Amino acid sequence: MEAARRFWLLSEICKREKSDSEEGSMRLSRTFIAFILFCFGVRALQAQTPTTPSQPPDCGPFVQQFYNWYVAKQNALTKRNSRESALEVALRDKRSFFSPELVKDLKEDLAASKKSPEEIVGLDFDPFLNAQDIAERYVAGNVTPKGDHYWVEVFGVWNGQKNSNPDVVPELALENGHWIFTNFHYGKTDIPVNENLVSILEVLKKDRRKTAK
Fold first, then answer.
1. Which residues of 25-64 are buried (b: 16+ CB within 10 A; e: fewer)?
2. What is the pTM of this model?
3. CATH class of 60-212
4. Are strands 137-146 and 169-175 parallel, antiparallel or unpaired?
């Protein structure tokens, strides 16, 4: 009897262990399947979520900072009756603010004008202000992306009143994490080449070459 009882107990223990083992395996299988489905779901959501391209920092403050400096520099030079212009100082002290091509062409234009002071062989206006007279201050306005470049409207302020139309529209590009001026736009005119600084400098350069021949 005792032997039979022990055999029965061993049988029950084995059954329970087998049952527990099967139940544990089923729980493990269900957990694993749920984990796999979760991973697939996350990846599917990631694939469906559109990625937003990173936007470059706003160039408006950079433009405003430059014009604040430029106006202050020009006013200081005028008070000292300096023969040096704010344009010359900018090309020397703020060289990194401009594209190398623009610096080269502006310096060449300045050199030609100084060489022939009695003739108009170069720019006869301030290319950063699109004027011969300087306003009280200048205010940067709307920024318009055009490809990988950005155009910023700049308004002159006279007697406390901001001009209704932009005086000049600098064109900028982001290079190596820094903004640089690549061109300055003046609006459409009857003469297309007068729309921007780069084209004006090119025409003046060609005229000087013709004259030199």
1. eeeeeeeeeeeeeeeeeeeeeeeeeeeeeeeeeebbebbb
2. 0.74
3. alpha beta
4. unpaired
